[in-house]
Design brief:
279 residues; TIM Barrel; two-stranded antiparallel sheet; 10 helices
Amino acid sequence: MTVPTRTLPSGDELPAVGVGTWNISGDTVREAVRAGLDAGYAHVDTAEGYRNEDAVGDAIADYDREDVFLTSKVLPKNLGYESVLQSCEASLERLGTDYLDLYLIHWPNPAISLRETLDAMATLHDEGKVRNVGVSNFSAYQLSCAQHVSDVPIAVNQIEFHPWFQRPDLVEYCRETDTVIEAAAPLARTDIFGSEVVQDLAETYDKSPAQVVLRWAVENDVVPLPKSSSPEHVRENLELFDWELDDADRQRLDAADRDEPVYDYPSRDWTGDVYGISE
C-alpha cells in the first residue's frame, strides 16, 4: 500500500498517517511498530515522555532507516537550551539513530524562554540531528510566537483533534501558515467509538469505527497518529486510502463537534514533573 504524504517546508515528505506509541511500552510497542511498518506505515511517533524510545528503537532497527519517518518530542521541563540538546542526544541514543526526521516541543512551558528553546532546535537542525522542527499542543497564539522567533520553519503542530474536538480557529491558523496538523488522540482515546454517528457510519461503510474517524481526519488534511496495542488494529487503521466518505456523511462528523477534549484541557497540572515548574 502506498500512503500519501504531506510536503514539509524542508521538502521532506511526511506520511499522511503514523503509528502512535503513547502509553504502550516493551514488547507491546515493539510488536505494534513492527506490525505497522510491515503493513506499509512509514511514520512512527514517540517522545522522551512516553518512556518507550528504547523499545521503538529496537523495532525500527530491523528496517531501512531512510524508509521510516521518525518523530520524537522534548518534555517541557527540558526546554532550556542545553537541556534540549541533551534530551535530543538521549533520544537519539535510545532510538539507535543519528537523526530525527521531526523533533517537537511536546508542550509549551511558559516558565522557559521559547526563543531559547528554538535556538537549541536550530542548533540541532544545523548539526543534522533534526531534519524538521515542530511543536505540539500549541495554541494559535503560541504557534505564531514560535514562528516569529524560530530560525527554522515550524513544520508541524501536533494537537488533540477528533470529531468531538475540532478546534476550527486553531486549524484555520495552521492552514493559513502552512503548518501541517497532526492529530494526537485522533480517536479521543476510544471515547469517540460511543458516538452514534460514528457507529452508524461504520455500519454503512462496513468499516470499523476507528477507520471511519481516521478517514474523516485524512479528508480534513490532518495527519492522524492512532495508537493501538493490537497489531491487528494497527494494520486495520492503515486501510484508509482506497475509499472515501460521501460529502453528506463527512458533514455529519463535521457537525459532531462538542469542543470536548480528552486531554488538552484549558488548565494544566503544574505540579507534575512533566513541566518541572517548582513553586
